[in-house]
UniProtKB/TrEMBL annotation:
Key words, A-Z: Heme, Iron, Metal-binding, Monooxygenase, Oxidoreductase
Annotated InterPro entries: Cyt_P450, Cyt_P450_B, Cyt_P450_CS, Cyt_P450_sf
Role summary: Involved in the coupling of aromatic side chains of the heptapeptide of vancomycin.
Protein name: Cytochrome P450
Length: 407
């Protein structure tokens, strides 16, 4: 018997710890890897929890961010980013190809390797702040989230984009506000403020261009009048969100994954250079900060996993669930830096594979190498279950990460 709409699983699912996805994801994956659910906004969507199905759909050109009728599209939430349809349905593929071509040089692996020293310098500055905070209150825990996880990604993406140093606090705050759910309209206000800010910054870059991504985008406007300031701002907003919010969570949860098991920390300290790549990839696979998924819309009927997804349906691809699929990963709930291959879906797959993947890996390598070198005795100063959760944000995560270390 077909379940009534009111009986469908309701997102977000409840979870007991930030170190694992909600159990309902695994239960659904076992029973129906492509299943109907209700979004936090109350709309119907297909939730994809199986690795094979998620990988296939990530690469399917018949899924997109736009919707044939945006006014009636099912939505995920009221966030200003990734909460509903985005982009022009008729030109999405062309717009996406142009965006990738514009950004590929700036986010190439070669460019990221050239940024290694600068990222390491910014990490060092954040760790200096942590040490200073400990010096001011030597008997109190230090909030690693406030001093490292939260500020660092904003510093890095701001520098890459070309945001003035004096504006970076404001820039970071806009990202934080735009990804809030149930914000009573503040998320939309933050996005409007962001677009206005980017318009002013684009005008400044036309007069004084520099070696940064925004200057590259402004130069591209000269060759393509259809690439308006509105589209430039939307592209920059996506880069800010992906380059800040998601990396914040991966730093926080990576620290938790390592510190929650002292043996992992000891093994890493014994051979940081040899283990860092495996550590980072396993953090990317296992970090599960949010209880939702990546929103897409069907541009045509798609048959997969024994179900028919109709044109216009919302589809939520859940990498955190797919990355724990035992059909793909042996002992999927075990943190194993030696796992090979480790073909996780943390950055998606196919044509929409995250263009900032190299940047995220650069930041994570720098963070975990420097953190444990600088503070080898760092440990959690709270129980994992007691850490405050960001339940009002699209990307989830935690709001505090108290740590301490031997002086």
């Amino acid at each position: 018997m077909t379940a009534k709409p009111t009986e469908l699983p309701q997102l977000p699912f409840s979870r007991s710890t930030m170190l694992d996805p909600a159990p309902a994801f695994g239960e659904l994956r076992q029973r129906a890897p492509v299943a109907r659910v209700r979004t936090p906004a109350g709309d119907l969507a297909w939730l994809v929890t199986g690795y094979e199905q998620a990988r296939t759909l990530f690469a399917d050109p018949q899924l997109g961010r736009s919707h044939p009728d945006a006014a009636t599209a099912p939505t995920l939430s009221d966030t200003a980013i990734m909460g509903g349809p985005d982009g022009d349905y008729d030109t999405e593929h062309a717009d996406h190809a142009r965006m990738r071509a514009l950004l590929r040089p700036a986010f190439s692996a070669k460019r990221m390797r050239a940024l290694d020293d600068r990222v390491a310098e910014l990490v060092g500055q954040c760790l200096d702040e942590m040490a200073a905070a400990r010096g001011r209150a030597p008997h109190q825990p230090v909030d690693l989230h406030a001093h490292l996880s939260f500020p660092l990604p904003a510093l890095v993406i701001s520098e890459l984009l070309g945001v003035p140093v004096t504006d970076r606090e404001y820039f970071r705050d806009l990202s934080h506000r735009a990804s809030r759910m149930n914000s009573s309209g503040d998320a939309a206000t933050a996005m409007a403020d962001f677009h206005a800010y980017m318009g002013r910054l684009a005008a400044a870059k036309r007069v004084h261009p520099a070696q940064d991504v925004l200057s590259d985008l402004v130069r591209a406007q000269a060759d393509d009048p259809s690439f308006t300031d509105e589209k430039l701002a939307g592209l920059a907003a996506g880069l800010l969100f992906a380059g800040h919010e998601t990396t914040v969570n991966r730093i926080d949860l990576g620290v938790l994954l390592l510190l929650a098991n002292p043996a992992r920390q000891v093994a890493f300290l014994a051979d940081p250079a040899g283990q860092i790549t495996g550590i980072v990839e396993e953090i990317l696979r296992m970090a599960a900060p949010a209880d939702l998924g990546v929103l897409r819309y069907a541009h045509a009927d798609i048959e997969i996993g024994g179900v028919l997804i109709r044109q216009g349906d919302a589809v939520l691809l859940a990498p955190s669930a797919a990355n724990r699929d035992p059909a793909m990963f042996a002992d999927p709930d075990v943190f194993d830096p030696s796992r090979a291959p480790n073909n996780h879906l943390a950055f998606g797959h196919g044509a929409h594979f995250c263009i900032g993947a190299s940047l995220a890996r650069t930041e994570l390598r720098a963070v975990f190498t420097a953190l444990f070198s600088r503070f080898p005795t760092v440990q959690l100063a709270a129980r994992v279950h007691d850490l405050p959760v960001r339940s009002d944000h699209l990307t989830g995560g935690i709001t505090e990460l108290p740590v301490t270390w031997a002086s």
